[in-house]
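Structure ticket #2291
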Amino acid sequence: MIKWGFLIAFQIPFVLSPQNPGEVIAYVSRQRYNTDIYLLQLSSSGITRLISEDAGEYSPAWSPDGCSIAYVSNNTRIVPDILVLNLKDSSVTNVTAQIGSDANYHNYPSWSPDGGKLAYTSSRREGLGLHILDLANMQDFRLTDTTLVVSSSDWSPNGKYIAFAAEHDSDLDIYSVSIDGTQLNNLTNDNGHDMNPSWSPNGQQIAFSSNRNDNWELYVIDADGSNLRRLTSNDGVDAEPDWSPDGKRIAFTSNRTGHFEVYVMNTDGSDLQQLTHAPYVISESPHWQPMVCENKK
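Resolution: structure written out below.
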């Protein structure tokens, strides 16, 4: 295993302290030419910079047990790699550097519900496709063909499907695919651009962002693509939804005040709250800690 522990400066005490699930959100802060990953504790509004590297890191994704974060870094090689930070021992593993991908782009990691695999976007094997990496044996395989240009993805809670955004014939839609690649479905199939799919914890709904009505707003569909509902309506950009572990709230990114901040609302769009207040930086890509990490050695 390749470890890069020297690359990181971070503080993690409250992540491993007793708390309720859904108390911590990881997010990205972009300032000038650098991006760092921060943690926000909702009960105290405390903010801690978790990862700070020279070249920047982004796309944080919590492991199901809440003890690790997968993220993308530009700092290790000449291409973006996916790294995994273990919050218990502070070790960092560059997982994409181990699968013969020296000159390829990688982004948007998403964990399987059992924590044993990562879905991610990669330019390996002709174009941007959806891949699955088995972390036990470091075996990688591609789920999608070259007709789809894949961006972000999210693993279903039952582990059987992955929802992802992909471009086909200049149109961005939300798709789902079975983890063996045999069942591919276009869930949105409209004339706008649909991105950032996020499964609800019960697996019955998918939230996503779309400009189908000439502005980027948040929407929800049932897992089969039916029953479209619009959650937000304002002149700004609303994007990157992520469900709380209890399924009652959605965190997201918005520039409705003139700059990008992290917000949270109920799943019907009510009770909107602004979580970050940093007008001179871009706050984005929120991701809830799914459960409390048990800090057992």
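Closing remark: The domain at 5-288 is CATH 2.120.10.30 (Neuraminidase).
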